[in-house]
C-alpha cells in the first residue's frame, strides 16, 4: 500500500491538477491517489533520496510536518458557571468532539460512562493495519464503540483494541475537553457528556523528514495524514447527523504564516459550515528565538541574519518569506567560508559544499511560491557546523524591503539553535493562521498574564490572530495508565476552548435554539463575549480579542 510505503512520497495535490501528474496513466488506481475532500487528494509518487526533489516538484505539494503543542481553573473562563446553572447545565450532551492527535488511553476512567461503557463513538488508528479501515479510507484500523466496549470488558483490552498513547498528549487533550468527572482526582473535562471521535496519527514518513532535514528520531506527523483525520471525524459527524467540534493541538512553523496551505484551507472551509466548530492551538514559539523579522530602508538595501547553530542540531531547514521584493541570498559560515550569491529562480535547487568543513546546504530561492505568489527561500542544512552563521539577504530592486524567517518548531530543534536578534511576533504555528477557525493562545489563569511561550500574531499578511486566550497553565488532565496530572501550553488552551465551542453547539443545535449556526458564528460569539483588561487595547497580537468567557456569551444571548 503506497500510503504506507517509504518508497513513495505522499504529496498533497489540488484535484484539478491530478491529470498533470498522470502522464502515463499510472496513477488512476485507488492505491496511487487517496481522496481527502472536494479540493484536495494525496498522490503517491515514487520517492527519491535527492533533497532537490523539492525543486523539481513545487514546495506546496510536500506535506508540512507537525508536532504536538504541549498541553484549571474552571471558573477562570465561565465554564463552571454554565455547568452549575440548572437552566443551562451545558455539558456537551448530543455533541461530538474530534481529536486528531497521538492516540488515547481509551481504558482511562475519564473516557467511560458511569456504567463503565465507553464514551468514544470510534477510533481510527492510522498506525494499525491488522483490522478494517473506515469506510472510504484505505489504511489503518477503525474501532467502533461496540468493539471498544468488548475490549473494556476483557481482562486484556489491548488484545481487542491495541491502541496506545505512550506520550499522553492525545489523552490529555481529549480529557481537558470531555473527560468524565472524578471526585477523588478533583477533575472534570469542560463537556463531560460529549462523545468522542479519536484519530491516532501515524508518524511522518522518513522520506518527507529527509526532504525537510528533520532527524529520523523526531516524532512528527504529516499534514496529509492530519487532513485525512479531519475528513474522518467530519464523516462520522455527518453519518450520525451530530454537531462536532474538532480540536487541532498540533503545530508547524513551515509555510508562509498567512492562512494559505492545504490544512488551513480545509479547516477554514469546515468552520464556515453549519454544526462544525474548529479550535486550533497557537503554538508555543513566542520566546523560542525561532522567528526573525528583517528590514532595510536605506542603501545598500541588505540585511544580515545571524543564526546561532547549537552543537546538537546537525540537520534542519529554515524558511525566508517576502511578499514584494526580489531577494538574493549569500551564506557565511562560522569559519568565514561563504557561498556565492544565489539569485531567485522558479524551480532551481542548489547543493552547496565547503572546503574546510563537511556541512552541506541546499537552497531553493523560489521567486514565486505557487500557493501564495510570494518569494520563498528554503535553506536546508546537513552536518551543520556549530557557531554563528550569517545569512545575507539583498534586495535586487535596490529599494526598501522586509522579510520574515522561521526555524522549525517544537522538538525539531534544541534550545541551543536560534536567531541572535529574534522577534516574538508572527510566531503562531500553522494551521493557526487560518482565517475562519478559532485560534487559541494560552494565559496563566492564576495571575491573568499571558504565558510567554505562547505564539503571537499577527499573521504575515496582517490578519488578526490569535482570536482568544484560554487557560493554559497546569491545566488538570488525564494521563495514560489511569493517572491524572496537569499540562501547560497552547494545546491545553485550545482544548479548553473546544469545550466552550461544544457548549454553544449543545445550546444552539442539540437544544434547537439556533440550528443553522456555523463554526464562524460561534467564533464571533466567543470573541464578542471575551473578557477585557481595561489597560489593554483589543484586538491585539498577544491576546487577540481577549480572554475566553463563555458565560458572557449566554448573558448577551439572553438580551436578544
TrEMBL record:
InterPro entries membership: Pep_S8_CspA-like, Pept_S8A_subtilisin_clostridia, Peptidase_S8/S53_dom, Peptidase_S8/S53_dom_sf, Peptidase_S8_Asp-AS, Peptidase_S8_His-AS, Peptidase_S8_subtilisin-like, Peptidase_S8_subtilisin-rel
A Pfam family: Peptidase_S8
Domain Peptidase S8/S53: 92-286, 420-546
Molecular function terms from GO: serine-type endopeptidase activity
Any one of the GO BP annotations: proteolysis
Keywords from the named record: Hydrolase, Protease, Serine protease
Membership in a protein family: Belongs to the peptidase S8 family.
The protein's name: Peptidase S8/S53 domain-containing protein
Organism encoding this protein: Clostridium symbiosum (strain WAL-14163)
Amino acid at each position: 500500500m503506497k500510503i504506507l510505503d517509504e518508497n513513495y512520497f505522499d504529496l498533497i495535490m489540488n484535484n484539478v491538477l491530478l491529470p498533470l501528474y498522470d502522464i502515463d496513466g499510472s496513477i488512476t488506481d485507488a492505491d496511487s491517489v487517496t481522496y481527502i475532500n472536494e479540493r484536495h487528494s494525496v498522490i503517491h509518487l515514487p520517492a527519491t533520496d535527492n533533497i532537490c526533489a523539492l525543486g523539481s516538484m513545487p514546495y506546496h505539494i510536500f506535506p508540512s510536518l507537525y508536532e504536538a503543542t504541549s498541553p484549571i481553573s474552571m471558573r477562570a473562563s465561565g465554564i463552571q458557571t454554565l455547568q452549575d446553572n440548572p437552566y443551562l447545565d451545558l455539558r456537551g450532551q448530543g455533541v461530538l468532539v474530534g481529536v486528531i492527535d497521538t492516540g488515547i488511553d481509551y481504558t482511562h476512567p475519564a473516557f467511560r460512562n458511569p456504567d463503565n461503557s465507553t464514551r468514544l463513538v470510534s477510533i481510527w488508528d492510522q498506525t494499525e493495519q491488522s483490522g478494517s479501515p473506515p469506510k472510504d479510507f484505505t489504511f489503518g484500523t477503525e474501532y467502533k464503540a461496540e468493539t471498544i466496549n468488548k475490549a473494556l470488558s476483557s481482562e486484556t483490552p489491548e488484545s481487542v483494541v491495541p491502541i496506545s498513547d505512550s506520550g499522553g498528549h492525545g489523552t490529555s487533550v481529549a480529557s481537558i475537553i470531555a473527560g468524565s468527572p472524578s471526585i477523588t482526582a478533583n477533575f472534570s473535562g469542560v463537556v463531560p457528556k460529549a462523545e468522542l471521535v479519536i484519530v491516532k496519527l501515524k508518524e511522518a514518513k522518513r522520506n518527507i523528514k529527509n526532504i525537510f532535514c528533520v532527524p529520523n528520531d523526531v516524532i512528527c506527523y504529516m499534514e496529509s495524514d492530519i487532513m485525512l483525520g479531519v475528513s474522518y471525524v467530519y464523516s462520522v459527524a455527518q453519518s450520525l447527523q451530530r454537531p462536532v467540534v474538532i480540536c487541532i493541538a498540533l503545530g508547524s512553523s513551515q509555510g508562509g504564516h498567512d492562512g494559505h496551505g492545504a490544512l488551513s484551507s480545509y479547516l477554514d472551509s469546515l468552520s464556515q459550515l453549519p454544526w462544525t466548530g474548529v479550535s486550533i492551538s497557537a503554538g508555543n514559539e513566542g520566546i523560542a528565538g525561532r522567528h526573525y523579522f528583517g528590514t532595510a530602508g536605506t542603501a545598500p538595501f541588505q540585511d544580515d541574519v545571524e543564526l546561532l547553530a547549537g552543537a546538537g542540531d546537525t540537520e534542519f531547514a529554515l524558511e525566508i518569506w517576502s511578499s514584494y521584493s526580489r531577494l538574493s541570498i549569500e551564506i557565511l559560515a562560522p569559519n568565514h567560508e561563504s557561498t556565492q550569491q544565489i539569485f531567485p529562480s522558479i524551480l532551481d535547487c542548489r547543493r552547496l559544499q565547503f572546503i574546510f568543513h563537511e556541512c552541506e546546504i541546499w537552497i531553493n530561492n523560489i521567486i514565486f511560491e505557487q500557493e501564495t505568489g510570494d518569494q520563498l527561500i528554503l535553506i536546508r542544512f546537513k552536518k551543520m557546523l556549530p557557531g554563528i552563521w550569517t545569512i545575507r539577504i539583498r534586495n535586487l530592486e535596490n529599494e526598501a524591503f522586509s522579510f520574515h524567517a522561521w526555524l522549525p518548531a517544537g522538538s525539531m530543534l534544541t534550545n541551543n539553535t536560534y536567531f541572535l536578534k529574534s522577534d516574538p511576533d508572527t510566531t503562531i504555528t500553522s494551521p493557526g493562521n487560518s482565517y475562519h477557525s478559532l485560534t487559541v493562545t494560552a494565559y496563566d489563569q492564576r495571575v491573568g498574564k499571558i504565558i510567554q511561550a505562547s505564539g503571537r500574531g499577527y499573521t504575515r499578511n496582517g490578519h488578526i490572530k490569535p482570536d482568544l486566550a484560554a487557560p493554559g497553565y497546569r491545566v488538570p488532565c488525564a494521563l495514560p495508565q489511569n493517572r491524572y496530572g496537569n499540562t501547560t501550553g497552547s494545546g491545553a488552551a485550545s482544548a479548553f476552548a473546544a469545550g466552550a465551542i461544544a457548549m454553544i453547539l449543545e445550546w444552539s443545535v442539540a437544544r434547537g435554539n439556533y440550528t443553522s449556526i456555523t463554526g464562524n458564528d460561534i467564533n464571533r460569539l466567543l470573541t464578542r463575549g471575551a473578557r477585557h483588561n481595561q489597560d489593554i487595547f483589543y484586538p491585539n497580537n498577544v491576546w487577540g480579542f481577549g480572554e475566553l468567557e463563555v458565560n458572557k456569551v449566554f448573558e448577551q444571548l439572553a438580551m436578544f
